[in-house]
Amino acid sequence: MKTSLLLACALALEAVAADAPPPLSPAHSMAEAGMVDVRTLSPRLDEDVKYAGSDNFTGAPVDGYKSAKCFLRTDAAKALARVEARLRHEGYGLRVWDCYRPARAVTAFVRWAGDLSDTSTKAGHYPNLGKDKLLGEYIAPVSGHSRGATVDLTLMHCDGARCEPLDMGTNFDFFDPLAHTADPRITPAQKASRERLLKAMAAEGFSNYPQEWWHFTLPSAVPPFIYDVPVE
Asked: Which site among 9, 82, 161, 211 is 20 to 30 Å from 42 CA-CA?
């Protein structure tokens, strides 16, 4: 009986620990965090870092983004550069929307989601949901992006130096099941484009988050903590 009680307590403590947020790294610079600007490894990578400007679901630049740059942990950055290089040989390229995300930016997202009076971006980002439904499934208090091994991106078709984004079925940060990678409502062409992106990323070890076709993580590069170094 005593042994069973001790085991139950131990399991309960493990469950609490599993739900606890990861610790915050003391790093004060990208170098200390082991991150690099991906463009230094992949100069042709197209960048449209949404949270550095107003074209995002909050409708304003997000705290922590002082520059529109893509930083990742070194191994993830190298893997992404290899994906881009391989795609270029096939007539395609990548456009990144977000890479490493400071923890303070995630806090800003949660704060925005709690302001139910501001629905200015509803039509473009959550047309079929009330804003009160966004916390949890779509906006969480801790993001894997803050670990530096996750990237949001899309696929482009390239004709020489000119590249155009492909139709993937939804825009970035579209909070709706239509953005699920395998949603059955997308067209055959959209499905083929999503699958091409999946295959290219998987070839370098990236895993897709199935509820967002644009979201990929390199598990082998994920550290045990999150960062709050500003992007600049």
From this structure: 211
Tell me, what DSSP letter sits at residue 205?
A: T
What tokens does 166 get?
Answer: 């492909």
Query: Which residues have CB under 8 Å from 61's CB, separation 6+?
Result: 51, 52, 53, 54
CA distances from 220 to 62, 73, 97, 162 (A): 28, 11, 22, 33
Active site residues: 212
**H-helix or E-strand containing 15?**
helix 2-19
CA distance 93 to 178: 23
Amino acid in the structure at residue 12: A
| Average of per-residue pLDDT across 84-109 | 97
Q: Which two tokens stand for residue 165?
A: 């984004």
Render pLDDT for 118-135 as a digit per residue (tens, 0 to 9). Answer: 999 999 999 999 999 999
Backbone angles phi, psi at 49, to 5 degrees: -75, 100
Position 5 confidence tier, pLDDT thresholds 50, 70, 90: very low
| Average pLDDT over every residue of 107-121 | 97
